[in-house]
Design brief:
The complex is a heterodimer of chains A (353) and B (246).
Chain A: E1 2-7, H1 8-18, E2 23-26, H2 34-45, E3 49-52, H3 56-67, E4 73-77, H4 79-94, E5 99-105, H5 121-126, E6 136-138, H6 143-160, E7 163-169, H7 170-173, E8 176-181, E9 209-210, H8 217-237, E10 241-244, E11 251-254, H9 257-272, E12 277-282, E13 284-286, H10 290-294, E14 303-308, H11 315-322, E15 328-333, H12 342-352
Parallel strand pairs in A: 2-3, 2-4, 4-5, 5-7, 6-7, 11-12, 11-14, 14-15
Antiparallel strand pairs in A: 1-8, 6-13, 10-12
Helix pairs in contact in A: 1-2, 1-6, 3-4, 9-12
Chain B: H1 24-38, E1 45-49, E2 64-67, H2 73-83, E3 88-94, H3 95-101, H4 103-112, E4 117-122, H5 152-155, H6 161-166, E5 173-178, H7 182-200, E6 206-211, H8 215-218, H9 222-236, E7 240-244
Parallel strand pairs in B: 1-2, 1-3, 3-4, 4-6, 5-6
Antiparallel strand pairs in B: 5-7
The chains are: A alpha/beta (353), B alpha/beta (246).
Chain lengths: 353, 246
C-alpha cells in the first residue's frame, strides 16, 4: 500500500488504471483535464489504449464500442461535456454494457463557470438523457473516497452491466490530499463474462448483437421491466451513505459530495459549541439512500438543514422524498462556483434552531 | 451436380434483409458478406451499423454487430479496432449518417488512418425517414425537404465524400463504385474484397463509396432508378479509384 499526496483528478485516473481500466477516450474541458492528461501516458504503460476524441460525442461512442468487447473503459468530462455524452450514455445503459463515466462538474447552465458546483444533480441522478434509464451514481467527499469509488465503479459496472456515473466536481478534482491508492487489480480476479461480449472469435451461435431499437412496444416492455427490476435491486442492496454523529443528534444536516465534507466540518464546529449536530451524507445518489433517513427520530427532530452548491436547489427534493415530507427543509445553498463555507452553515443552523 | 453458387454462409435463410425492392442495400450487403466469406472472416468480423436503412440488415447477418448512435459508427469502430486488432471491423453507413450528422467522426477516423473498412451507401437522400435532402442530394433534386429542388444558394452543393477523404494523407484505399448494373456490381465486389483484405493485412483505412438506388424515395421503379444513376448521378459523382496505396 502506497500513500501519496495527489490531486483528485489524478487519483481517480490512477485508481481507474488499478481497477482494470484499459481504455479511455475524452476531450479537453476544464476542470477535468488532468484525467486525460494523466491517462494519455499511464494507460500505454499497462498495455491499454488512450484516444483524444474529436469531441465528447466521439469519445463516449468509442467507449460504447470498446466496452461491448469487454474491455474496462472510461470517459470523463465536465458538465456541458456530459450533456454531449448523454445520448451515448443512454445507448450504453440501453445495451446493458458496463462503463465508467466521471463528471468533474462545474457551474451551469451552459458554459457557466469552471469552478466546482453541484448543479448536475438532476442531470446525473434523475435524467441523464431521455428514455427513463438510470446510471448507478456515486459521489465522493474526499480524494480518498474519489479514488476508492472509481476503483470499485468498474466492479459495480461489470456486476450489473451498467454505466456507473461518478459525480464529483472541481473542488474534489483539483484538491490535493494524502491518499492510500488501492492495489493493482489482478485481471484474473475481474468480473467479466464471455457470455455477453464480443470476443475475438464468435461463431454462428455466439455472434453478439448490440442494438437498442425495438420494433414493437411489447418488445420494449420486456427491456423496460428488466430495467425497473435492476433499479429495485439497487435500492434494496446498494444504498450507501455515511451517518456522522447521528446517534444522539438533535440537529440534522444533510449534504453530499464536496458540500458533504464542508457540512461535516460544520457539524464538528457545532459540537464544539455544545450543539448536538449530526450529518447524513449520501454516497450513492442513485440508488438514493432512503434508509439513512429512516433512522431520524421524527418525534424530536422537526427540521433538516440541506446543504448544496446549487441555486435553485436540487438535492433537497430527494431528501424530502426520503423523509416523506415530515420535516421543515432549510436550504443552505450557494451558487455553483461559490464554495459553501463552514461558518455560514454554522450561523444559519444557530439562527434557525 | 456441383454447387457453384450459394448464399453467404452466415446469413439467415429465415430472416429477409428487410430492404425495399430494388434497394441497393441488399446488393451491398451481399457483396460485403461474400467478401467476408471469401477470406474466412465470419467469426472475426464486427459490423458497425448506422442509424437509418442500413441498420435493417443486422438480423440477416449472423455476425457480431453493434448499432452505433446516428453518425458515430467510425468512432465506435475506431475503439473496437484499436483494442481488438484481431477483429475485422466494418463501418457500414448511409449518406445522412456518414456525411451529415457523422461528418466529424468520419473525417477524424479517416485522418487518423484507422485500420478500418468503411462502406458508404450514397443514395442521395435520407431513406429511412422518407426521402429528405441529404448532404449528397444532387443540385436540382427534389426531396421532401427541398421541394423546389436542391439549390446551391440555399442549400450548398453536394458533398463528394470519396474525393474529400482521398485528399487526406492517411487513407490507403479510396474509391467510388456503383451498384446499378452487373458490370459495376462486379467492380464494387472487387473493391470491397480489396478493402477488407487490406484491413486483414494491416494496411490501414479504406473507404468504398457505393452509388446506390433508392427507388421508393426517388419514386421511380428499379429499372428507371438504374437509368437515373447512369444519366444523372454519375455525372455529379464520377466513379473510380481516387487513392490506392497498393
Amino acid at each position: 500500500m502506497s500513500k501519496e499526496f495527489i490531486k483528485g483528478n489524478e487519483a481517480m485516473a490512477e485508481a481507474a488504471v488499478r481497477g482494470g481500466c484499459r481504455f479511455f477516450a475524452g476531450y479537453p474541458i476544464t476542470p477535468q483535464n488532468d484525467i486525460p492528461e494523466y491517462l494519455s501516458k499511464r494507460l500505454f504503460e499497462v498495455g491499454g489504449t488512450f484516444i483524444q476524441g474529436e469531441s465528447e460525442i466521439a469519445s463516449i461512442n468509442m467507449v460504447y464500442g470498446v466496452a461491448a468487447t469487454g474491455v474496462r473503459s472510461m470517459t470523463s468530462s465536465s458538465s456541458p461535456g456530459l450533456a454531449l455524452k448523454s445520448e451515448g450514455i443512454s445507448f450504453i445503459a440501453g445495451s446493458r454494457i458496463p462503463a465508467v463515466i466521471i463528471n468533474v462538474a462545474r457551474g451551469g447552465p451552459a458554459l457557466g463557470t469552471i469552478q466546482g458546483a453541484q448543479q448536475d444533480y438532476f442531470a446525473s441522478a434523475k435524467a441523464i438523457a431521455p428514455g427513463g434509464f438510470r446510471c448507478f451514481v456515486v459521489s465522493p467527499s474526499t480524494v480518498q473516497e474519489a479514488a476508492d469509488l472509481v476503483y470499485e465503479a468498474f466492479e459495480i459496472a461489470d456486476k450489473y452491466r451498467t454505466p456507473v456515473y461518478v459525480l464529483t466536481d472541481g473542488v474534489i478534482g483539483n484538491m490535493m490530499e494524502i491518499v492510500e491508492l488501492p492495489p493493482m487489480r489482478d485481471p484474473e480476479e475481474m468480473l467479466s463474462s464471455d457470455a455477453w461480449r464480443i470476443t475475438k472469435y464468435n461463431d454462428d451461435s455466439s455472434a453478439r448483437q448490440f442494438s437498442t431499437y425495438r420494433p414493437t412496444g411489447e418488445m420494449l416492455t420486456v427491456d423496460n421491466i428488466a430495467m425497473a427490476e435492476l433499479y429495485e435491486e439497487w435500492q434494496e442492496k446498494e444504498q450507501r451513505w455515511e451517518a456522522f454523529m447521528m446517534e444522539d443528534a438533535e440537529v440534522v444536516l444533510t449534504a453530499y459530495g464536496s458540500a458533504g465534507r464542508i457540512a461535516k466540518s460544520a457539524v464538528k464546529e457545532l459540537r464544539a459549541q455544545g450543539i448536538k449536530a449530526g450529518l447524513i451524507r449520501p454516497i450513492t445518489l442513485f440508488p438514493f439512500p432512503n434508509k439513512a433517513y429512516e433512522n431520524i427520530n421524527y418525534d424530536k427532530i422537526d427540521k433538516i438543514f440541506v446543504v448544496e452548491m446549487s441555486i435553485p436547489p436540487q438535492f433537497v427534493y430527494d431528501v424530502e422524498l426520503a423523509t416523506k415530507s415530515q420535516l421543515d427543509y432549510i436550504n443552505i445553498n450557494t451558487s455553483g462556483g461559490v464554495i459553501v463555507e463552514t461558518e455560514s452553515i454554522v450561523d444559519k443552523v444557530k439562527e434557525s434552531m | 451436380m456441383e454447387k457453384i453458387y450459394e448464399r453467404p454462409s452466415f446469413t439467415s435463410p429465415a430472416i429477409g434483409m428487410g430492404f425495399c425492392p430494388g434497394c441497393s442495400h441488399s446488393t451491398a450487403h451481399k457483396l460485403m458478406a461474400q467478401a467476408l466469406d471469401k477470406y474466412g472472416l465470419r467469426d472475426k468480423a464486427v459490423l458497425i451499423y448506422p442509424v437509418g436503412c442500413g441498420g435493417l440488415g443486422k438480423d440477416w447477418v449472423r455476425l457480431n454487430n453493434i448499432v452505433a448512435l446516428h453518425g458515430r459508427a467510425a468512432a465506435v469502430g475506431t475503439a473496437i479496432k484499436k483494442c481488438n486488432p484481431e477483429n475485422i471491423v466494418i463501418s457500414y453507413q448511409g449518406d445522412g449518417d456518414l456525411a451529415a450528422i457523422g461528418m466529424a467522426e468520419t473525417m477524424h477516423a479517416a485522418n487518423r488512418g484507422e485500420n478500418l473498412t468503411v462502406i458508404f451507401i450514397n443514395n442521395t437522400n435520407f431513406g429511412m425517414t422518407g426521402g429528405q435532402m441529404a448532404p449528397t442530394t444532387l443540385l436540382g433534386q427534389r426531396t421532401t425537404t427541398s421541394p423546389d429542388g436542391r439549390d446551391i444558394e440555399r442549400h450548398g452543393a453536394p458533398f463528394k465524400m470519396a474525393e474529400l477523404i482521398a485528399e487526406l494523407d492517411a487513407p490507403k484505399f479510396v474509391g467510388r463504385f456503383a451498384l446499378h448494373d452487373a458490370k459495376n456490381v462486379i467492380k464494387a465486389q472487387a473493391a470491397i474484397d480489396k478493402a477488407i483484405r487490406m484491413q486483414v493485412e494491416g494496411k490501414g483505412y479504406s473507404f468504398v463509396e457505393l452509388i446506390s438506388l433508392c427507388p421508393t424515395n426517388w419514386k421511380l421503379n428499379p429499372v428507371d432508378s438504374a437509368k437515373r444513376v447512369e444519366k444523372e448521378i454519375l455525372k455529379e459523382y464520377p466513379l473510380g479509384i481516387f487513392k490506392d496505396f497498393e
